[in-house]
Amino acid sequence: MPQLTVHWRHEGFSHDAGQRSNEDISGTNVDSVHTGVLTDEHQEVTDGRPVLVEDETSRVYRAADLPPDTQVVVAKVTQPLEPMLEKARRAGFEVVTAG
Q1: Which residue ranges are recorded for the region named Disordered (predicted)?
Q2: Please, which residues bridge with residue 48 across strands?
Q3: pTM, entire model
C-alpha cells in the first residue's frame, strides 16, 4: 500500500473525570488536529493493518490508539486509493473525504 498524506481530528475531551468549575476547564476541551501518513509499510506494522504516522512526532497510531470518533480525513479518493482506504476502514479507522 502506498503512503497517503492525511490529517485526523477529534473533538476535545478531558481526561479529568472529577467535577470542576467552568473556570477550571476553560481551554482544556480543544479540538485536536494532527497530520501524517496512512500506511501499512512501516516497521511497526507486523499484521498488515494500516497505521497513522504523525508528521510532528513520528508517533505511530493504530485505530485503537485514537480517541473515540476520531476522523481520518483524506483530500480526494481516486480509484487506485480505494482499496487502501477500505483496508483502513476494516482496521477500525473512520476515514472520510474532505469537502
Answers
A1: 1-29
A2: none
A3: 0.73
